[in-house]
Amino acid sequence: MKTYLSFEEIQEKMQLLQNSYQIDEEKFYRVVEAWADEDTDVEQKLLASFQELLQLVSGEMEQMDQTMGMKPTCQMGCAFCCYFPIIVSKMEAKLMTKAIEQFPADRRQSIMAHLTSYYETYGKKLDTITSMDYEEDPDFKRKYIRSHVPCPLLNTETNMCMAYEIRPIPCRTYVNYTDPNLCAENDLPEETISFEFLYNEYMGALNEFVQFLYEEEHTAFINYPDDLFSYDYLPNWLKVWHENQSM
Predict the structure, then answer these.
(1) Residue-range domain boundaries for the chain
(2) What percent of the chain shows pLDDT beyond 90?
(3) C-alpha–C-alpha distance, residues 26 and 104, integer Å
């Protein structure tokens, strides 16, 4: 019978991480500094830096795993966390959708067709759950999860993300190090870990880059600083984009 780490053992590993690991913030800023010097258009600079910063977050996760001597038990096709509420800024949503627009035509068209079906299927439920005040309602996450509405980018036939490489920070920093069945049996298992604090390094570098572009008077499709401070549920941002693309 396979044995898994206990909650107490995971907490001990996390304490080890806190005591011995330091994030190299400078490598996040080196990404945007390099793209600032590239001889290419602003839109490509934004998209490339956005995607490289996301990759750095995933790389940081792997290094932390090595420090703790643990490996996530999350398995391909496991999508329980894809029913969680994901809240992102308008700036991040714009970067995600611009990246999707640059996907190969067949992949982009597949996502568009999927979203059409998604909003037809879940429209009424989405209106209800995305109207919850995520800042004031302390139980909004559990209520959202119990509605059983998947992420708009989840292919529920394969349980795979249709835009995996540009998935937001909450998606890539939530992991399970113990029995994977816990996620099936609990809405919000206490044993799972979120490294969402990595958002600080990612957004700090991204914000500095867009601020630099703003001072240069060219931020492409980003309305800075308004897009940075406007937050909403990911399904709401994607719905607006999908409707605009379908016109």
Answers:
(1) 73-246
(2) 96
(3) 33
